[in-house]
Amino acid sequence: MSTAAEECSSPGCSKLLETKLSCPKCVQMGLPPTYFCSQDCFRANYASHNKIHKVAKQVMEAKKAAANAHRKTPPDGITCSEDEVMETKMSLPLWAEYYDFTGDLRPALLSPKRQLPPSIPRPDYANDIQGISMSEQRDRASNKSIRIYGPNELDCENGLRHACAMGREVLDIAGRALKPGVTTDEIDRIVHDACIERGCYPSPLNYYNFPKSVCTSVNEVICHGIPDYREIKDGDIVNIDVTTFNGKYHGDLNETFLVGNVDDDGKKLVKTAFECLQKALKMVKPGTLYRDLGAVIHKTATASGCSVNRTYCGHGIGSLFHTAPNIPHYNKNKAKGIMKPGHVFTVEPMINLGVQADKTWHDNWTAVTSDGKRSAQFEHTVLVTQSGCEILTARKDEPVMSWNEDLVCRS
After folding, report:
1. Could you tell me which of 319, 340, 348, 324 has the C-alpha nearest to residue 389?
2. How far apart are alpha carbons 242 and 254 in whole angstroms?
């Protein structure tokens, strides 16, 4: 079925659009997109078009003033205290009021940033005003090889195995708390407190200004969902992505859970995402090309009528949160490198029910499917051994991944 051709938005110009050149100011303000036939046409008519921006700004300010007249509005339009009434907590952040969402999910406000005691060891980005990891920046500029971890780094006090074991404990605690009616903000509190109890830093917190201690991705959110005051609903699928830093190393893992009465498509999606990771990890051994993981993931996903997101990838991990290698999950990728004993990295394919494409909300983090259909993911941190791989973030008594729907069901 074809769609009608669109005309240029400039007054008096009736040219049909061959390419969609959108106004960047409209996108920035969250206004419905307007398209122009050419840069010249856009520039020639910008003075007239800019009036729309001025009117929209006035409307936004008037709406904010009206909100202040009947309830307390968060001063920054993004956060509010935990003792606020539910009506305020469930308000849309200012950036979302005119945003064109792809699916049904809507953000709520965030709780204030949670604090850590001074005794908790911190990565270099923890107190940076922009959340920049200078050690990762230096690594990207100078590193020409994939780091090899030996027994002294894996098994020492606060070694890499310990960081991964702490991550597994924290994810299990968070997963047990998940049920209809619980907010993702409450999951964030549980993760934050569980990290403190184990003397660990929650790695996502302030990483390039990510505001929370865990990523919670609901339904059409592919990854990097920010915990807020929205309550989890019966039928949601929810990914909880935990990373812990023990002062020396990071351990990273995630799982997607079926909350309440999830429909058959949701169950199929979550199982497919699990199987994509399961089959990819069977390939992890010395001599495997990193790019070859994408082929088996693609084959597994498409066999179930799903697609593989191409934007986000697995990564090296250890003393740095993100480092070489990059591990794309899609077919015919051009990832560099061959697996060797001692390599440590994550595999975390993001599997969509619809198209593979994504869009990022204007919170600058939340990645959602471009068609609003659901997405699911599982992740492990793995070590290449002499004969295969060891899952450093494995479930207890599950050294090899094994599908059991009961383990991801929450009610």
Report:
1. 340
2. 6
CA atoms within 13 A on the CB side of 28: 5
* Neighbour-count burial of 411, counting CB atoms closer than 10 A to its CB (0-12 exposed, 13-18 middle, 19+ buried): exposed
Distances in whole angstroms, Cα of residue 221 to Cα of each of 153, 218, 365, 393: 35, 5, 10, 23
Indicate the pairing of strand 409-410 with strand 250-259: parallel
Q: How many CA atoms lie within 13 A of 235 on its CB side?
A: 5
**For residue 47, what pLDDT is reported?**
82
**b vs e for 32-41, b when ≥16 Cβ sit within 10 Å of the residue's Cβ?**
eebbbbbeeb
Report how far residue 240's alpha carbon sits from residue 170's, in angstroms, rounded to the nearest whole number.
10
Nearest residue to 241 (alpha-carbon basis) of 254, 227, 256: 254
SS3 content of the chain, % helix, strand, coil (to 5): 30, 20, 50
Report which secondary-structure segment, H or E, holds 259.
strand 250-259
* pLDDT of amino acid 337: 96
pLDDT number for residue 72:
37
Q: Is residue 328 a contact partner of residue 252, using CB atoms and an 8 Å limit?
A: no
> How many degrees, rounded to 5, is the angle at CA 78 between CA 72 and CA 84?
40
DSSP string, 295-350: HHHHHHHHHTT-EE-SS--EEE-SSSSSEEEEE--STT-----B--TT-EEEE--E
Whole-prediction pTM value? 0.82
Read off the tokens for 261.
């009465």
Long-range contacts of 211-214 (CB under 8 A, 24+ apart): 211/110, 211/113, 212/110, 212/114, 212/188, 213/114, 213/188, 214/174, 214/187, 214/188, 214/240, 214/241, 214/242
- Note whether 322 and 124 are within 8 A (CB): no
Strand order in the sheet with 314-316: 323-327, 314-316, 344-347, 380-384, 389-391
Q: What stretches in the chain show pLDDT beneath 70? A: 1-7, 14, 16-20, 33, 59, 61-76
Q: Which positions ≥6 away from 138 have C-beta within 8 Å?
A: none
- What DSSP character marks residue 5? P
Half-sphere exposure of 85 (CA within 13 A, CB side): 6
Q: What is the pLDDT of residue 39?
A: 81
Please tell me the distance from the alpha carbon of residue 207 to that of residue 216, in angstroms, as a whole number.
15
